[in-house]
Amino acid sequence: MIITIDGPAGAGKSTVARQLANRLGFAFLDTGAMYRAVAWACLQRDVDFSDVDAVADVARTIVIQFDGDEVLVDGQNVSGEIRTNDVTAASQYTAGNLEVREILVEQQRRIAGDSDVVTEGRDQGTVVFPAAEFKFFITASPESRARRRQEEFAARGQNIPLEQVLADQTDRDNRDAARKVGAMKPAADAVEVDTSQIDADAVVQRLLEIIGGTPD
Ligand SMILES: Nc1ncnc2c1ncn2[C@@H]1O[C@H](COP(=O)(O)OP(=O)(O)OP(=O)(O)O)[C@@H](O)[C@H]1O
Ligand SMILES: Nc1ccn([C@@H]2O[C@H](COP(=O)(O)O)[C@@H](O)[C@H]2O)c(=O)n1
């Protein structure tokens, strides 16, 4: 069974998808980590992001693996490094590269294979797994997403003004929604869940109720 969770930055996709996968005993696939991994590898190799062929070559060459919550590139654990602000900023170039998208979409389908998977990203229900059994589109107001992200930064010792977090988030949202291929949008058959007023546990509970057979 495939369950897709798409939505904008900071809506809680990975938190909810990871918990849901744990509750159901499914695998969890974080596809944003793959776009980040390619961006990280490009930065390591000093690749010019305007050279779309060079960026695609990196995506074609590196081996991305998941080991539990860890993300490996060519065997190196890059779980922390792919979450830096530099990689977040650079991932717009990998996400906007058509060839990179083709390569990663193919890998995402291969990773899912015949397994039971909860997968999250921007295009999982629309492009990658259009026949998924359950599709969710998780949203939250821009302000609540930015506040959550700001708290996350603060917990890592980075104090960033809310206005800046909100502005960066709006830029990402706009780019994600405007992409010609793999744009962020709800699949026609996705259930939309607004998480602004509910915590992650309640979101997971709601999703489990929709899926049916709550394993409580
Ligand atoms: N329902 C919720 N209520 C409050 N905080 C939440 C909720 N869901 C997630 N969070 C917190 O919000 C932050 C962003 O969540 P998360 O990383 O899961 O979002 P995301 O949609 O995967 O973002 P991105 O696409 O940028 O990776 C985290 O600090 C997380 O703990
Ligand atoms: N299916 C996806 C998932 C992510 N992206 C882009 O990758 C970047 C990082 O994603 P996070 O969810 O880890 O923040 C982000 O800029 C997304 O635009 C994508 O294009 N498709």
Account of the 3D structure:
It is found in: Cytoplasm. One of its GO terms (biological process) is pyrimidine nucleotide metabolic process. It comes from Symmachiella dynata. The protein has 216 residues and is of the alpha/beta class. It folds into two domains: 120 residues, P-loop containing nucleotide triphosphate hydrolases (Rossmann fold, 3-Layer(aba) Sandwich); 84 residues, Rossmann fold (3-Layer(aba) Sandwich), CATH 3.40.50. Helices cover 51% and strands 16% of the residues. It has nine helices and eight strands. A five-stranded parallel sheet has the order 2-6-1-7-8, with helices on both faces. Strand 3 and strand 4 form a beta hairpin. Helix 1 crosses helix 9, helix 2 packs across helix 5 and helix 3 runs parallel beside helix 5. The longest helix is centred in the C-terminal third of the chain and has 17 residues. It starts with a strand and ends in a 5-residue tail after the last helix. Adenosine-5'-triphosphate (ATP) binds next to helix 1, helix 7 and helix 9.
Q: What is the structure about, briefly put?
A:
This protein has 216 residues and is an alpha/beta fold. Helix content is 51%, strand content 16%. The longest helix is centred in the last third of the chain and has 17 residues.
